[in-house]
Amino acid sequence: MTTDMMNIASNSDRAQSSIEAALIEIERSLYLSTSIHSIPDAEVAATFRAGLEWMKRFVMRPNPHLGRRGAVCPFARPVHEEPALYFCTFDCGDMNFETFVEIMLQVPKLYRRISAGFSGRSDLLSLCVFPTGLSAAAYYKFIDCAHSILKPIYMSAGLMIGEFHPLSAVRGVHSDTIFPLRADVPFFAIRSTTAHDILFIDRESGSAGQRIHELECYLSSAGQLLPDGEIARIRARIEQLKSQLVSENDPADTIPPATTAVG
Q1: Are residues 155 and 237 in the same domain?
Q2: Residue 201 half-sphere exposure, CB side, CA atoms within 13 Å?
Q3: In the predicted model, what is the mean pLDDT of residues 1-16?
Q4: Which branch of life, at top level (predicted)?
Q5: pLDDT per residue over 206-247, tens digit each?
């Protein structure tokens, strides 16, 4: 084995060790949001309190800039009070981005294990993952960019993932004067796909291919909750986007016609 090959193998082993250690940390730190007062680790408890206090202060309440009536998230308080809201954390301060994403790709398995043993309302079950040790300058990459990578994969698993951090620039669905994902601490929120998630997919900012994938996953996960008319509308929308995608990639649209030389 050459030196380069040995270095690659060594780096791979270190990355795998980091992933395994983080997954153990995530499992050990798992608490219901109603039980965080009993957490023995002061730093973990402080992180969870900061997240929950922000949810109570902002997410669970109405906001004049929201553009509609009701709480910023109508489901947050019922999820917390069920109780069906789990918190967990891991330290990613010295972690590279690829390892971070690999760890987050394992979280759906944890969600499924929790779900299998959960005796409450499964439609309310939610999991918040708090990555600690991130600098503010890293939020755009480890939260926003990671979310764009993770969302299609989570949706394939029947899950939605939301990204929150103090510098979030994501505006509200009904109003562009509110930043609903601008939390006091960075975290991801994970739950099963529901009928109302149509609000968060097929957005103008996404590519046609991404929007097709999201709509197909939405139908697969939440289709049984939708009326026949809505299912038909979404299927028609998928076909419209597919036609748009073919048109955008048609060589005839991008290659100029040949010109005839006149001598």
Answers
A1: no
A2: 27
A3: 64
A4: Bacteria
A5: 899 999 999 999 999 999 999 999 999 999 999 999 999 888
Query: What is the average pLDDT value for the chain, to the nearest integer?
Result: 92
User: Which of 206, 18, 23, 21 has the alpha carbon at shortest distance from 106?
Assistant: 23
Q: Which of 160, 192, 224 is the last residue of a domain?
A: 192
- Same domain as 244, residue 145: no
Rounded to whole angstroms, how far apart are CA atoms 196 and 193?
8
> Are residues 62 and 112 both part of a single domain?
yes
* Residue 53, CA atoms < 13 Å, CB-side half-sphere: 9
What is residue 257's DSSP assignment? P
Question: Residue 106 in 3-state DSSP?
Answer: helix
Residue 210: domain span:
200-249
Q: Give strand ranges (E) for the chain.
A: 31-32, 85-91, 126-132, 159-164, 187-192
- Which structure tokens are listed for 245? 């995608």
pLDDT above 50 (res 259): no
